[in-house]
Each structure stands twice: as C-alpha cells, then as structure tokens.
Task: inverse folding
C-alpha cells in the first residue's frame, strides 16, 4: 500500500503540535517536515528546535526534507530532534556522502532528493547508500505550485535502478500532488505521496487519506 505523508508546510504554524495530532488521527503514515534555510531555497521555515517541540505531541514517523546547503552540519541536531528519516538534496553544497553516512550512523533512514531541473546522473552516485529517493515535482521552496509531469520518469528510473542493483529503495514524490497527479505517480511506481496544500485544503483529511489508501 502506498504511504501518505502530509506536508506540515501547509499546516497552521500557529498551532503546529495540534496540526500534527490532526494529521496522525487522520490516518497519515508519515508527517513530512520541510526545512528551508533561505539559501538553498528562497524561503525559511523551521529547524531542529521546532521539530523537537512537536515531537512531544505525536509518535508519527517524522520524514524530514532538508532543503539546506551543507546539510552535514545539522544532521546530529535533526537526529536529536526526533526525525526518523532525513533526506538531503543531491544539488546541495558540502559533503553529501558524509551527510548520508552520518544520518545512517544515528540508525535513521537516509534519503536523497532531486530537483526538477537536475539530471538523474547527479543523484546516481548516492543511490547505493540511501533508503529513499524523494523526487521533486515542483521547484522546492513553496507549497501550492503546479505538478511538473516531466519529472515522473525519475520515479520509474529510481525503482528500476533499485531493482537492477538488488536494493530496497523507497521512492517518494513531492510537489503538486492531488488525487489526479497521485495516480500518475502511483502508476509510475511511487511508494510515498507527499501532499501539502491539497491535503490541508480537504474538509475531511481522514476521508481523503482513506480514499488514497484504498485506491492506491
Ligand atoms: C516544497 C516542499 C513540499 C511542499 C509541497 O518545497 O518540499 O513538501 O510542502 O506542497 P504542495 O503539496 O502544496 O505542492
Ligand atoms: Zn518536501
């Protein structure tokens, strides 16, 4: 069954703990946490102290998506904050192999993410080391953008790479996911659907998650 990971970027930041509980009660598999540094992407969100604070509110899996330069600097802090998976970008500056090794040294799952304009050849050197690939289907930085369908072949490529190399790699998709684009990604082989604005706009989030779980 495909996992559903609402992106807390679209939650009410004035009551993040309560929003997290709402997501968990709605039946979400993971909570997706978008960390932005204002340098790798032109927006700033939250960091380890906020994640540590909301960790007390729920036991749901924390799927941290680090849109930050030189991510190795903060791996220990995000691990200490209670993240379960930590994903870094293949385009980020710094020692990305080292960041992945450090994430795994904490006993956490490591992911690599790829931007729409980046070729899979940039991500390939990390494929043998990661547990998850996060395919961006929008330019990272903001919620509510339109799905870029040209990125979908990267989902298929990642699943095929994993199969060809005998690796168990989860593939997640992030950006512009709604009921229709989710289907396109599931048909391409995706394992996790990250959805922000669409999910938080639903009058009944639990019904939408249940619908996705039954359809996908
Ligand atoms: C964008 C973030 C996404 C974002 C997706 O940089 O990585 O996780 O929350 O938002 P939607 O689903 O609205 O495109
Ligand atoms: Zn994200």
Result:
């Amino acid at each position: 069954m495909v996992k559903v990971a609402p992106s807390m970027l679209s939650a009410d930041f004035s009551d993040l703990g309560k929003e997290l509980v709402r997501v968990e009660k709605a039946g979400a598999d993971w909570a997706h946490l978008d960390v932005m540094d204002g340098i790798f992407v032109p927006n700033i969100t939250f960091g380890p102290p906020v994640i540590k604070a909301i960790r007390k509110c729920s036991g749901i899996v924390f799927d941290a998506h680090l849109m930050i330069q030189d991510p190795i600097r903060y791996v220990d802090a995000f691990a200490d904050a209670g993240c379960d998976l930590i994903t870094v970008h293949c385009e980020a500056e710094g020692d990305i192999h080292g960041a992945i090794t450090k994430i795994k040294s904490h006993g956490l799952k490591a992911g690599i993410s790829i931007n729409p304009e980046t070729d899979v050849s940039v991500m390939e050197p990390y494929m043998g080391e990661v547990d998850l690939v996060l395919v961006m289907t929008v330019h990272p930085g903001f919620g509510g953008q339109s799905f870029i369908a040209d990125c979908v072949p990267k989902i298929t490529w990642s699943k095929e790479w994993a199969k060809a190399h005998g690796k168990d790699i989860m593939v997640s998709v992030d950006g512009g996911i709604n009921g229709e684009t989710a289907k396109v990604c599931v048909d391409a082989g995706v394992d996790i659907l990250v959805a922000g604005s669409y999910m938080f706009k639903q009058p009944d989030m639990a019904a939408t998650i249940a619908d996705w779980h039954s359809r996908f």
In short: The chain has a mean pLDDT of 98. The longest helix spans residues 153-164.
